[in-house]
Amino acid sequence: MKITFPHMGNVYLAVKALFDGLGIDYVIPPKNSKKTLEIGSLHSPEELCLPYKIMIGNYVQAAEMGANTILITGSCGPCRFGEYCEMQMNLLNNLGYNFKFIVIDAPGDIGVTELFNRIAEISTKSKMPKHKKFQCVKYALDVINLADKLDAKAHWLAGYERNRGECKKLLHACKREAIKCTNPKDMINVLKDYEKKFDNVELDHAKDPVKIAIIGEIYTVIEPFSNLYIEDKLMSYGVSTRRELTPSWWVKNMAMSPTRLNSLDLKRHSKEYLGLEIGGHARECIGEAVMAHEDGFDGAIQIFPMGCMPEIVSKAILPRISKDKNFPIMTLVVDEMTGEAGYVTRIEAFLDLLERRKEHVLSGS
Amino acid sequence: MYYLGVDVGSVSTDLIVMDEKLNVKDKIYLRTRGRPIQVIQEGFKLLREKYKDGEILACGTTGSGRHIAATLIGADAVKNEITAHSTAALEMDRDVRTIIEIGGQDSKIIILRDGIVVEFAMNTVCATGTGSFRDGQAERHDIPIEEFGDYALKATTPVRIAGRCAVFAESDMIHKQQLGYNEADIIGGLCEALVRNYLNNIGKGKEILPKVFFQGGVAANKGIKKAFEDALGFEVIVPEYYDMMGAIGAAIIARNTVRKTGRTNFKGFGLAESTFASKSFECTGCPNCCEVVRIYENERAIGCFGDRCGKWNTRLSVQTIA
Questions:
Q1: Which of B106, B88, B35 has the alpha carbon at shortest distance from B278?
Q2: What is the CATH number of domain B2-84+246-273?
Q3: Class of domain A209-365
Q4: Nearest CA to CA, how far is B82 from chain A (Å)?
Q5: Backbone angles phi, psi at B113, to 5 degrees
Q6: Which fold has domain A3-126?
Q7: In A, what residues contact B, Cβ < 8 A?
Q8: In whole numbers, what is the pLDDT of chain B averaged over residues?
Q9: Helix/strand/coil (H, E, C) string of B27-64?
């Protein structure tokens, strides 16, 4: 058995740490690229959303490297992602690939026994004693938490750094070094080293950078390739950004969901505009927009893949929030046709808008 | 002493020279024809006869080719079209509250309040109604594009045309022609369809209040202007230099930048004589495989585009937001 999995932000680091620790054979698909998307678009139904296409590209590229088992998370939730695993199984079958799928669903949907059965399919492949296995899971969680924390730090400090581009450079160096590690402990140490390095970045606290919240559909906000590296772009412009949705948030949210105590602040803040769970992360998107305004942000950018049902609903609600709170929100829709020139023009114009507003308020004119 | 603005768009490249009081001294309108470098050189050849390098106090670029243009001429400011257009409009009239801008392949709406941009939108998946489409239609009807608008004004009962998609709009027009409707009514109908499409798409949910400025190449079309006025119920103003607003905005922004920095980066009109070449290659540094383009002026590399990580060029990405 050679396991692979689709890319999504920092997930590959955590999965690498987990399988390195467990001593299980795995393949990390090549980083998402135009090639990945080309392969995915070629095989996928045209109307399907962007994440599906990129994931298909990941599988095909991983198969070329010898993978024969796919590990993904499922969701029986009311958005197309809930059907991804079934459709992808079919599609890959029709293409002649012989993949085994292991789908990790929430225990509420498939039952605790079934969940453990599915996990056992992987864990029994490891010869480690049980307590070591738990330790590996703990390491993987540490990795994802640390990696997401570093992302957040870099994205925020980019607005305050004295030497333009330092945070971006440091973050990329960190990822490059982390992926070279061959055991989870080393990786954690690398990440911790870089955490210290971020603390030593020279900052200019007198700066008052434009602050933007990145909100919207979970895959397209997390996976940089799918949003044309918007966070990298904003870092080079010297903008501070914040994004609530991360793989580590997702893990925490899933683990807490049976208690209904998950993401209470987001639920509370979305209540006025969207009191119901409508699938995907529409409610989170609304909550984040309101929270960003309360936290003194200058604006928000919503990103979602073309045709994303839950986010279309939130897109219709956001102008209301924008008007009520006098808070600029721009929506960017991405798919494989997205042209970078128009995309960049919109981002730059939005930054100009936020800057002018800022100056206007400060000068009181 | 003058300010220079360059707007390299998909269809046209505009150059503007303004004096220190922002009066337009010279305007040059050239077709880009997919060759931005040559077109800028062509424009500079014309300007070189009238102006000296030292007389240019500041220069700015905008439009989809703004980055390449900036590298070429040594721009002091590189700005997106939305900011450039609104800067130019506000310079002419502080009270403008809506800008409708329709260019070669883009259409935009910019909402301003109290002299600042508060909201904007751009066409995403559809280019019906932009200059390129209209060019094609004018050609098909064998009417010079300059007279296209006048035909619309002659319409007595404009025909209803499906304006959602450029190709279907064309099919519908052919269908109506074959039914025997007269040309003026069809062109009039087309103008109305395009305005309807604009207002339903880009203008959706936007509060369009007067004064409305109508800018970009398509503003030359009187039929569209009238169709906008009919749909909105108030006057739509087409400013004198409607087709130069981007370039004017770039020049004004460059002036403001130079006021802060104290000196211009302008490389001079001599580039009209230089030989430019571009070489592209695929970077193999990571799986991203960026297609990098390098521009050479007289065999000296002056700029790089297309790399995401900034390995080949960090300078430009930092320069874009001044």
A1: B35
A2: 3.30.420.40
A3: alpha beta
A4: 6
A5: -140, 135
A6: Rossmann fold (3.40.50)
A7: 30-31, 33-35, 164-165, 168, 172, 229, 232-233, 236-238, 319, 328, 333, 337, 341-342, 344-346, 348-353, 356-357, 360
A8: 87
A9: EEEEECCCCHHHHHHHHHHHHHCCCCHHHEEEEEEECC
Buried b (16+ CB within 10 A) or exposed e, B285-318: eeebebebbbbebeeeebbbbbbbbbebbbebbe
Q: Any idea which fold B95-239 has?
A: Nucleotidyltransferase; domain 5 (3.30.420)
Residue of A nearest to B291 (CA): A34
Going by C-alpha positions, the residue among A236, A165, A349, A131 that lies closest to residue B99 is A349
Per the structure block, which two tokens stand in for B232?
């909105």
B120 reaches A (C-beta below 8 A): yes
Burial of B164 (0-12, 13-18, 19+ CB in 10 A): middle
Give the tens place of pLDDT for each residue, A175-186: 999 999 999 999
Sheet holding B12-19: strands in order across?
B24-31, B12-19, B2-8, B56-62, B77-78
* Pair B142, B106: CB distance under 8 Å: no
pLDDT band, very low/low/confident/very high, at B321 (cuts 50, 70, 90): very low
pLDDT beyond 60 at A80: yes
User: A165, B310: Cβ pair inside 8 Å?
Assistant: yes
Contact at CB, B120 and A353, closer than 8 angstroms: yes
Q: What is the pLDDT of residues A10-36, one digit of tens each?
A: 999 999 999 999 999 999 999 998 899
In this complex, the residue of A31, A165, A237 whose CB is nearest that of residue B286 is A31
